[in-house]
Amino acid sequence: MEKTTKPSKGKPVYLVLEDGSSFGGFSFGAFVPTVGEVVFNTGMVGYPESFTDPSYRGQILVLTYPLIGNYGVPADFSRELSSGYESTHIHLKGLAVSEYSSYHYHWNAERGLSDLLADEGVPGIEGVDTRAIAKKLRERGVMMGAITDDLKNAKCVAPAAHVVSQVSVREPRTYGEGKKRVAVVDCGCKNTIIKSLLKRGVGVVRVPWNHDVTKLGVDGVLFSNGPGDPMDCAATIENARKVIEAGIPVFGICLGNQMLALAMGAETYKLKFGHRGQNQPCKMAGTNRCFITSQNHGYAVDERTLPDGLEPWFTNANDGTNEGLRHRTRPIMSVQFHPEAMPGPVDTGFLFDEFISTLK
What we know:
Helix content: 10-25%
CATH class of the largest domain: Alpha Beta
Distance between the termini: 48 Å
CATH architecture of the largest domain: 3-Layer(aba) Sandwich
CATH superfamily of the largest domain: Class I glutamine amidotransferase (GATase) domain
Radius of gyration: 20 Å
Number of helices: 8
Strand content: 25-35%
Shape: globular
CATH topology of the largest domain: Rossmann fold
């Protein structure tokens, strides 16, 4: 569906970083000031899926691909597990792009990206030098920032928040039927993780981030992706420890990888600028196989602190950081990347099959 309204520049606004640097551009989406952690994504496509990924909660996203919005956005996403989106909300605090396309064309597009951002109350800024911003973040590390039209009074300070509790379901929900049931601990779970399990014929019980799943009588547990520092989720870590002690097969994705590592006594740390995009190469331990993966995280597991029995499974080919863990003798496996790959390549979708094969 093609947008036919005449394009026009929005109001002048600025992206201000906590180090004092500022980047001028023009507003699109909602015209409201915002504050968040500024991060960058190197993906070329997949912005509807990325914007609705709960792992971006509280962040201002800088997209390094130069043209954004040219294929619009899909239809209404108010339905749970709706196609084209990873949740029912945009979780970004703001968006920065080099060029926003006021015209769009795609068979599945229902409206423009700016219209969606406006409806969700999310501000955008276009016309900024996204390459310069990405280079600064790579050199200095991620930092807080603000999108504002008041350059003199801009403040890059946001109130503290427990972001995982903000994006998790409040009550358990069930999906599908099957001989096997998997509990998904929702720390900000993407729709496609649920869909990937349902596609393989298992029933799913989706529970809040702090729910004790050992009382559900399920055949396996998946700890999902999510935003923020894993150390902020002590209740989840304790429940992961209970799952491990009970011998229930378990799979962790992204934040879930970090939760399982912490539950077994390992440590995590914050990356300088994180991994965000659909083009991250990961090498499988003990082989020469390299997979291109979709990623969105700012923390990693410190392999030097792994307990006996827990081994590295995947390693990032760019910087050598941990990208997955596997236990030698117990049904414990986790990956830092996203095997459901929405958006991104589906190279590692087989990991869901491996997990399901461990179910009792």
